Amino acid sequence: MIRRENDVALKDYLDKWGMRVCPIDRSLKIMGQRYALHIMKNMILLKQNRFNQFLHTIDGINTKTLSIRLHELEEYGLVKRKVIPGRPAHTEYSPTEKGMAVRGILAEIASFSIKYEPEIVFIDKKPRNIMKALFGTGDLSSL
């Protein structure tokens, strides 16, 4: 492969900053899994915490995939799992402190669609600024 003078290979870039892996690639490995952001959105914004709540509100997800994603999110430290004793016992999921940081990612994604695709997002197809209502702040940097 021929490299031009201004081309920067990823390895060179990572070495320059003392990184082992690209932080964007790492985040996408975690968040890029199908339905991962949907689960986090439902936990953080909709306050859902039960398996069946996720199963019935995330279009296209099945029980096997949901179970795998919840386990992966727990392994990544984004979600904690708690078994609630009783008859019958049930399991509740909640975002960890690390998981709550995903709120900023969700806000940026929402902001993008609100700004650039209002004709798809809104019934009346008119753009508006509703970030404060959605996320409690209009300033995404505070998330």
Q: Structural class, please?
A: mainly alpha
Cα-atom radius of gyration: 19 Å
Task: Please summarize the sheet with the most strands.
Answer: 2 strands, antiparallel
> What is the typical, i.e. mean, pLDDT?
89
The main sheet orders its strands as 1-2
Q: What percent of residues adopt helix (DSSP H or I)?
A: 40-55%
Query: What overall geometry do the principal axes of the alpha carbons give?
Result: globular
- Poorly predicted segments: none
Amino-to-carboxy terminus distance: 42 Å
How many β strands by DSSP? Answer: 2
Count the DSSP helices. 9
**N-to-C SSE series?**
HHHHHEEHHHH
β-strand amount = 5-15%
Walk me through the structure.
This protein is mostly helical and 143 residues long. A hairpin with a 5-residue loop joins strand 1 and strand 2. The protein has a two-stranded antiparallel ribbon with strand order 1-2. The longest helix is centred in the C-terminal third of the chain and has 15 residues, at 102-116. It is 52% helix and 8% strand. It is globular and about 65 Å long.
